[in-house]
Please model this.
Amino acid sequence: MSVTERGQSGEKIDGFISLDLSDELEHAIQVSNLAYEVSHELNLEENYCYELAVAGMLHDIGKLKLSSCFEEDQEPLVIEELKYVRTHPALGYEELVGQGYSDNILKSILYHHENYDGSGYPGNLRGEEIPLGARILRVCDVYSALCADRPYRKAFEKEAAMEQMIKDVKLFDMQIFLAFQRVAHEDVEENKDEEKTCDRHEGYSAGGDGDP
Ligand SMILES: [Fe+2]
Model:
């Protein structure tokens, strides 16, 4: 049976794809935090922001249902493997439906790989056909993925990741992308302030007396 057949059958598969779970968890936390902040920036209600944080944590949970019949670091994936990996949003949706999650959370997960220009999957939805939560997750997911090491490339610096996203901006809802840029910019500025604070503390320590 090919990997494609296995994916489409919806058969319960034992074993994981060769995922590094600590990397996956770190990615989920980043997407969750970003989705929460971007939702706030868009002045969405607190409950909506919270739901997007939950969706961010769970958006790739369908990957745990993919079999380990190929190695993820064998890039690029062949067409069959790519089709199979692309079943993960639906697998995640199927795993969570009926478990008490809201329709907003479930639809955000199911459509988190849809692109604003209609080039995404699983439904080739475009524009506002894509649920708002999924459009928010898409931006946060791409940024987090670009800022992480991959077997075939090193992680992008934050500014370089942003430039890359600007080149591909047709994939995103512009209003959401602008809100995301404001959030990411604040994050960079905060990190700079933290670094300055750390430098000062290191300076005191290097002075040998330990106290400011
Ligand atoms: Fe995904």
Remarks:
- The radius of gyration is 19 Å.
- Confidence is low (pLDDT under 50) at residues 1-16, 197-212.
